[in-house]
Amino acid sequence: MKPSRRTYHEGSVAVQIRVGVREAAEHVGRSVGPDIRPVAAAFLALQPMLVIGAADKAGRVWSSLLTGAPGFARATGATTVLVVGGVPAHDPLGTAFPEGDRTPVGTIALDPRTRRRMRLNGTATPGPRGLSIDADEVFSNCPKYLQKRELLGRDDTAHSGTPHHGDRLTPAQRSRVRAADTFFLATLGPDGTADASHRGGNPGFVQVVSPTELAWPDYRGNAMFLTLGNLESDARAGLLFIDWDTGTTLQLCGTARTHYGDEARTVRFSIEHVVETEGASPLRWSPPEFSPAHPG
């Protein structure tokens, strides 16, 4: 199977050429297709959480966390997935899926217990049971930069708090970002498609430049450069930080640009909107076992 034109648009190709991984990217791209294979369907059905990325009605890009009992996100056909319950109304993406419309989405199912992840991009349509997603791209990534965590349990007595909105990080939020070892990143392609990806590193790998600006290194990955490729043509992005102990989420919306050095790349993110929701997730996770792939 040849990589589809959808998989590598001009932005991704430009980054691949610049970094010198075009041939490797072509090889990796052969595994991308719309089919949800049995092993992928089985993996998805075991997951208690799913990260989804999309643009809201105002065009702002967000990355959101969805949770449920295993099976709440499951394959319902060779190229379709049902996410029971959809996106909560209080979430920034709560109104991003109008009835009768097909909205581009990127999703990533990440299992900290096994350090495995699966990405599925396509279009979502709301229905009586939740979101139905028609897949265009389904693929897995290696466990590089993923922290291992055990699921300690669910706190189903806790209820998601009222989201707190702002346009800059508070001191407590800045401390949380500095301590983070994982975050999720949503971007849009030049054709309006959406993608959701993962970034991981040792605590401190995300630098708080100011209350309205973050920076992080772009580590060597799978050579596809889907995220950086998207940012070449559309700077809009959404970040999601999860407090694995308490379930609190921190969602940031803004724009991102990649700065290329002689041997390294750095992404700088300008914050426009901040949403913090206490107890957004009922899942409680153990402290991390850090990936051995992290630089330094």
UniProtKB/TrEMBL annotation:
Domain annotation Pyridoxamine 5'-phosphate oxidase N-terminal: ranges: 169-269
Gene3D superfamilies to which the protein is assigned, alphabetical: Electron Transport, Fmn-binding Protein, Chain A
One Pfam family cited in the UniProt record for this chain: PNPOx_N
InterPro entries per the UniProt record, alphabetical: Pyridox_Oxase_N, Split_barrel_FMN-bd
Name listed for the protein in its UniProt record: Pyridoxamine 5-phosphate oxidase
Organism: Streptomyces mutabilis
Source taxonomy: Bacteria, Bacillati, Actinomycetota, Actinomycetes, Kitasatosporales
